[in-house]
Amino acid sequence: MNVALPALIVFLLLLPGFIARSRFKRAERASLDFSPFGQIVTEAVLWSCVFHLLWLTASGMLFGRALQPAVLLKILSADPTSQSRAVDAIATQFSWICAYFLSLYAGALIVPTGFRMLITRFRLDRFNAGWFAPLFRFHQAPWYYLLTGADFDEDNQPDFISVSAIVNVAGQAVLFIGILDDFFVDADGGLDRLILQQVMRRPLLADKPYDPADDDPTRFYGVEGDYFVLRYSEAITLNIEYIKLAKVETDETIDESDDGAQAIDAAAEIAG
């Protein structure tokens, strides 16, 4: 009990930090997190300190409850007598302590998720967003930035992302071109497959220098189907192109006097 109880208390105190860290970051790796152990612990401790500070402040301001450091130190000590007294003190406020930790864990789950949504919504993680961009940037999600256009501001956000890939088909290099619809990563964080639409293909041997005056669209052959799944492991090269549609501005303003004159002439013609 002398060793297990303090370890359990430390675990409960630091658990909100690990929850918040896992909810805030955007990582493409679905398996083990290979970040340095010291980095993981440091980030979790910092998150825990922030959440405990907020929750303790709110408890004192809203409910008049304050932290009792003496009780915490006694339950973390190795003295059985001190631990017993601390347990008795905690037992008198057990319902309040349970409510504190349950709400703390819920907050550690919800609040970082909301922050991540706000960062994504307002694009605060763009590489040129400002001095704070490295703080908000999701460094473990490189494919996310490359294949979603997240590094563009809202005004320059691409309307389409074109993907060109060379694939070895029966010993022959074939070029596939399509519009990116979605992408998936594997458990280790590597790109697994791309979902393309409006795909066209042509053998690379049929390639020739592009000439706008003599462009032959028959060099490409349409691929039947609604979605084309391209496995990244089968692609020899991959080219990404961001396409922004140009806005066409038309002046539809008609002078009211001209409009009125045209109406009078039309009425005269009908009357005649």
UniProtKB/TrEMBL annotation:
Entry protein name: Transmembrane protein
Annotated TM spans: 44-64, 94-115
Organism whose genome encodes this protein: Collimonas arenae
Domain of life, per lineage: Bacteria
Keywords: Membrane, Transmembrane, Transmembrane helix
